[in-house]
Specification:
Blueprint: E1 4-9, H1 13-24, E2 29-32, E3 48-49, H2 61-77, E4 82-92, H3 99-113, E5 122-123, E6 140-151, H4 153-166, E7 170-172, E8 176-183, E9 186-192, E10 198-208, H5 214-218, E11 221-222, E12 230-241, E13 248-252, E14 259-264, E15 269-273, E16 277-279, H6 290-303, E17 310-322, E18 336-339, E19 347-351, H7 358-369
Parallel strand pairs: 1-2, 1-10, 2-7, 4-13, 8-11, 10-19
Antiparallel strand pairs: 3-6, 4-6, 5-6, 8-9, 9-10, 12-15, 12-16, 12-17, 13-14, 14-15, 18-19
The structure holds flavin-adenine dinucleotide.
The site of flavin-adenine dinucleotide (FAD) has 37 residues, from helix 1, strand 8 and strand 17.
Amino acid sequence: MTDCDLLVIGGGIHGAGVAQAAAAGGYSVMLLEKSHPAAGTSSRSSKLIHGGLRYLESADFRLVRESLRERELLLRLAPGLVRRQRFYIPVYRDTRRRPWRIRTGLSLYALLAGFGKAVGFKTVPESRWHELDGLRVDGLQAVFRYWDAQTDDARLTTAVLKSAQSLGANCLWPASFVRGSVEAEGCRVAYRDERDEERECLARVVVNAAGPWAAGLARRFRPTLPAPAVENVQGSHLELRRRVQRGCYYMEVPEDRRAVFLIPWREDVALLGTTEHLYRGDPDAVAPLSEEVDYLLRTHRHYFPDCPPEVLTSWAGLRVLPAARGSAFGRSRETLLVTDSDARPRLLTIYGGKLTTYRATAEKILRILRRTLPQQPAVANTAELALSAD
Ligand SMILES: Cc1cc2nc3c(=O)[nH]c(=O)nc-3n(C[C@H](O)[C@H](O)[C@H](O)COP(=O)(O)OP(=O)(O)OC[C@H]3O[C@@H](n4cnc5c(N)ncnc54)[C@H](O)[C@@H]3O)c2cc1C
């Protein structure tokens, strides 16, 4: 006799999404989060709900299309949490991505989104460049404007978790996974509860959704599984005292041609990020490096020379990316789902992924785990469940 059908480890966006999808699928769900919802990467992202324009450069069309579809869905399901945002791409004489290339990319982006009123792009006439939040006009050749979306990642995660709870998921925090074993009748998991007492739970299936902690947690299962070659790459953001009124700015960094965003955030506060820096330490200890802060401020100065920013605070999150040599910028953002068995999986670990596609990923996971779970009539459809943080 199992204690629940599905046990989720991690209360980030993926854990919350899987708990919601499984509870909607009619399964009994338990979720363990070691500190509080969105304590990890899911409160430290760039907070964009987007297709990922730059993934077109690596021909990740499937990912872009899926992300754009999820963006439209979230705009409908969570209007109080996800809103459309204008994005500006300035092109200077020395910008590597030339106007024709950006035009082609934006046309393809609109095509993948399924042309519509709110997905098109245009160029900003020169007569209006002075309205662009202090953007340098010296050497400027063109400015493109297109639409994507923005959220508050921690509030979105909380909203999805609440939705899971309303469907009956038992979400515990603080509750920390300790170890697990895959057995014939299910997965046995030991965890420490809020009183720091060790408890045990037997679940038919377990989803390890611990983000940058996932690889470490996977090693605490017996028998151990071969792990994919992944690494944690840190990305930092600065919070600037700075009013950015028009929208987000998508800036090509002169020194390495990566993209950095300047994003309106709260009243008189903007976000500037992000960086990519291989991180081998404890995920709990990740923090921005002074060289990352300098890199971001240099970029800001290059594009907005007359707006010296005041840094209010800074923070870093960890991306889980396929291990490879060289820059992390061009590596695949596809989500890796690793199971202990193809035919009858008991344990599934999520590596990587995007905030934007959490729901599609959760549904994919449920389809895989249905090979093990009993047939159950669904009680709801995640594509129709409204999300609210309040
Ligand atoms: C800098 C940066 C910018 C990004 N920007 C974007 C963006 O703009 N748009 C987008 O779509 N995606 C973005 N992403 C990707 C997105 O943020 C992540 O894919 C997503 O947040 C990962 O969520 P997760 O649930 O897998 O992991 P996490 O949010 O890290 O959640 C894992 C959870 O597991 C918990 N945990 C750890 N160990 C245990 C244990 N032993 N027991 C119980 N719980 C445990 C942690 O406390 C944590 O809450 C960005 C990522 C980074 C790093």
